[in-house]
Every structure is written in C-alpha cells, then in structure tokens.
Amino acid sequence: TSFPVCTKLYSCLFPYPGYPFALFQRYFLFQKEVYLIHLFNTLTGLSIAYFNFGMQFTHSLLCILIQFLILRLMGRTVTAVLTTFCFQVTYLMAGYYFTATENYDIKWTMPHCVLTLKLIGLAIDYYDGGKDLEVLTDEQKQFAVRGVPTLLEVSGFSYFYGAFMVGPQFSMTDYQKLARGEKTDVPGQRPNSLVPAVKRLILGLFFLVTYALLSPYVSDEYLISDAYLEQPFWFRCFYILIWGKVILYKYVTCWLVTEGVCILVGLGYNGQDMSGKPKWDACANMKIWLFETTPFFTGTIASFNINTNAWMARYFFKRLKFLGNKLLSQALTLFFLAVWHGLHSGYLVCFQMEFLIVIVERQVMDLMQDAPVLRAWASITILKPLYYVLQQAIHWMFMGYSLVPFCLFAWDKWVKVYTSIYFVGHILFLTLFLTLPYIRRALVPRKEKLKKAE
Asked: Which of 135, 203, 241, 287 could lock 397 by a disulfide, CB 3.0 to 4.6 Å apart?
C-alpha cells in the first residue's frame, strides 16, 4: 500500500513545532528588535532541518552563505542574477542526481527546491531594487529590495519555519514587513489571525484524514501491479480518475497546514477586501473551493500550488518577454518547472501533457463560444448538470493521466501504465490539437470569425 509514503509525509510535517514557534513569535517577539526575529527564524528553521535530515542541513546553510556573498560581492547586477540562477539550480540538480531513487522519499532536496526558488527570487528583487522606479512595473516595485540585507536577515528569510519544508514562496519585502511588525490588520498590535489560522489547520487535518483513509485503497503500487493490468479498460481509466484526485490530497494537506502557521504569525496578511475585512491569503497555496468544483484543467492549475505558480510567472515567464513569443515563454517556463521538480523523465512528460491539454482546452472553449450550434446546445438549461458531470469526469480522468508520470517517476513504470490504457490521453489531445482548426473552420461562420478578429 501507500501507507509508508503516507507515514513519511506526516513524520515530516507534524513533528516540527510550527504552530508553537508561531505562537512564541506572535506573543513574545512582535515588534521587538528585528535581529531577534531573524535569529529566532534562523535557529528554528535550522532545528527543523537538523531534525529531519541530520547533518545534511549543511546543504542549505552553504547555499544561503554563498547567496549572501553573491549579493554583497556582485551587487545589483545582471551577473549576480545569472550567477545565482546557475549556481542554485546546478546545486539542486546535483542533489537530485546523487540522491535519486525510484520512489518518493523525504530527503534534503525536498526543502532545498523551495529554497532554490526563494534565493533566485531574492537575487532578482535585489537587482530590481537598484533600478529607477520609472522602469519597473507595479509588481516589480512591490517586491524590489531597496536596502542591503544582512547575513542574519537572509538566513531568517530562508529558514523561516512556516515555509522552510514545503513552502509557500514569499518575498524578502514581505518578510521584512513581518520582522518590523507591519504584517497586521491592526497597526501597532498583533494581527487578529488566530481564528483564520485555526480554520486552515482544521481544513488541512480534514484532508489529512481523507488521504489517510483513501490512500491504502487507491495506491501507486496498484497502478503498476498485474491485478490492475488484468482489469477491463473502463476500470483502468476510472481508477486513474479516482487515484489522480486522491493523490493530490497529500499536497493539499501540507500546504493548508503550513499556511495556517504563516497566517498565525502574520505573514499571511494581504490587506483588506472591498468591504474593509482583512484578507489572510498572502501565503495561500490552495483555493479549495475552486479546486473541488472547477471542471476545467486551467481551473485546477489556478487553484493548486498558487504561490509557486505565481513565482514562475513573476520571475521566469514575465522575464522572458524579450523573446516576443508567449507560447515559447510558456513552454520554457513549464520545462524549468519540470526540471525544478527533479531529473526523472516523468516530470517532463507530466508538464508536456499539461501544456498540450491547456492549449486544446482553450481552443475547445473558444470553439464552444464562437460556433452557434455548439453555443446553442451548451445553453440548454436542463442539460447543464449533465455537461458538468461529463466535464468533471473528463477533467479528472486526464488530470490523473498527466499525474501518472509525475508520481511514478521512472520511465519503465509510467510507460507500463500508459501502455495499459493505450496512451489514450496523448492520442486524444494530439488528435484534437491537429483537427480542431478544421472543425472550427466548418462550424464557425465567417461573420463570427471576422467579429472575433475585430
């Protein structure tokens, strides 16, 4: 069963005292000297690293020290950004290479991939901090680091206990506001974040229990077993649909629990909404309602691992604007995202499949909107529940299909599963990709095409 993996995941999450640390910082360090907060975050993060990985915590320590030296010695230059990217990514790739197995293991590279993005983002924000405001976008102005961070500040930012193991990503500017006591809905007072934090913790525990109950019956091991191969084709597809949904709950659990820690200490504060109520979603990695209800692949992507996706958009995709090709920029971003996850072939196949599905889904949605016949059928009220169920089935079937190589890693495993269902996802979406332009030409009247072009 998947119970051993489940146990490793929980042992990684729950022995570390994230909530007690947050309570201590909240009640004893709020608006104290910033160096005390940096020191506290550094020591608590190091203790988490040592508890989980022993002396292998030195990998993160070394990369943080070298990153600090890059910032100080190279300054706010393109050279510093490129050196940071090359060094941090190469170090992570080397870690993946020397620790790789064919199973999902909790090892030092897991938090290190989070740290890699954090340090690259810091270098870019530090570089932006040296530019004139006129040349920066509003987003770049928001995250640009104007001052010169100290070693203790960089360490506290990197080792912050609420995000060290599994994220979320956050910027140095947000961390500095936290250290100064500015991440609060009541200026000068502790944030009123206890109830929102407990809500995320309870929701995380709900998904933890759900995953613990279901995972023994919907496991990775069964996918590559002879018993699975002996089942009829419809069952093999249906199993992937259910498995794909359940397997994501372990990530949902991690992110909800750690988000609660960030909210409790104040890092999750994100200003106020239109009605003046405080928002606590600055560190949200999940939009649970959207995740559970959307019938679209793009909806699931928008609801899942939000902060990592935002990081990729801010520091990678948008920085490729000079290429002048949005599709190429998206492809390169997904390639980097795949490599960042690890060196197994399955990651590349997963994100390649995601890229293809998203392109096809957008083409289908445009076709449904522009073709009068399809638009008329889609607007029939009595059929909408049926459409929704059908969309959800297709959505999670091929979401699970894409996750097969992501979760099974090794070439021989995911090829075995794909072969058992005749590579149905690749055949279907490649066929749609190639034929949709001709279908559109047949179904969309010329006047609709001209109207859309205008």
From this structure: 241
Instruction: Dump pLDDT digits (tens) for 248-257.
Output: 999 999 999 9
How far apart, in whole angstroms, are the C-alpha atoms of residue 58 and residue 422? 46
Q: Active site includes 325?
A: no
For 79, the token pair is 């050279």
Task: Please enumerate in sequence order all residues whose Cβ is within 8 A of that of 382, keeping only pairs 6 or more positions apart, or say none.
Answer: none
Q: What is the mean pLDDT of residues 44-54?
A: 93
Q: What mean pLDDT value characterizes the chain?
A: 92
278 in helix, strand or coil? strand
Tell me, what's the pLDDT at 446? 72
Q: From CA 199, how far away is CA 119, in angstroms rounded?
A: 30
- Examine the residue annotation and report whether 38 is marked as an active-site residue of this protein: no
pLDDT reported for residue 448: 54
Write the DSSP string, 53-105: HGGGGHHHHHHHHHHHHHHHHH-SSHHHHHHHHHHHHHHHHHHHHHH--SS--
Q: Please give the distance of CA 420 from its chain centroid, rounded to a whole number.
A: 30
Long-range contacts of 211-218 (CB under 8 A, 24+ apart): 211/6, 211/246, 211/249, 211/250, 211/253, 212/6, 214/246, 214/249, 215/1, 215/2, 215/3, 215/5, 215/6, 215/246, 215/247, 215/250, 216/1, 216/2, 216/3, 218/2, 218/242, 218/243, 218/246, 218/247
Q: What is the pLDDT of residues 110-152, one digit of tens each?
A: 999 999 999 999 999 999 999 999 999 999 999 999 999 999 9
The C-alpha atoms of residue 295 and residue 391 are separated, in whole angstroms, by 5
Alpha carbon 87 to chain centroid distance?
Answer: 22
pTM: 0.92
CA dihedral 431, 433, 438, 439 (to 10 degrees): 80
Task: Provide the 8-state DSSP code for 317.
Answer: I
The pLDDT value recorded for residue 409 is 85
Q: Decide: 262 and 168 in contact? Cβ < 8 Å.
A: yes
Backbone conformation region of residue 423, classed left if phi is above 0, alpha if psi is from -120 to 50, else beta:
left
Active-site hit among 41, 52, 285, 305? 305
> What pLDDT, in 10s, does the model give residues 407-423?
998 899 999 999 999 99
Q: In terms of Cα–Cα distance, which of 186, 163, 158 is closest to 30?
A: 186
Going from the C-alpha of 419 to that of each of 103, 292, 397, 414, the distances in angstroms are 21, 29, 16, 8
Residue 33 in tokens: 């000297």
**For 312-357, what is each residue's pLDDT tens digit?**
999 999 999 999 999 999 999 999 999 999 999 999 999 999 999 9
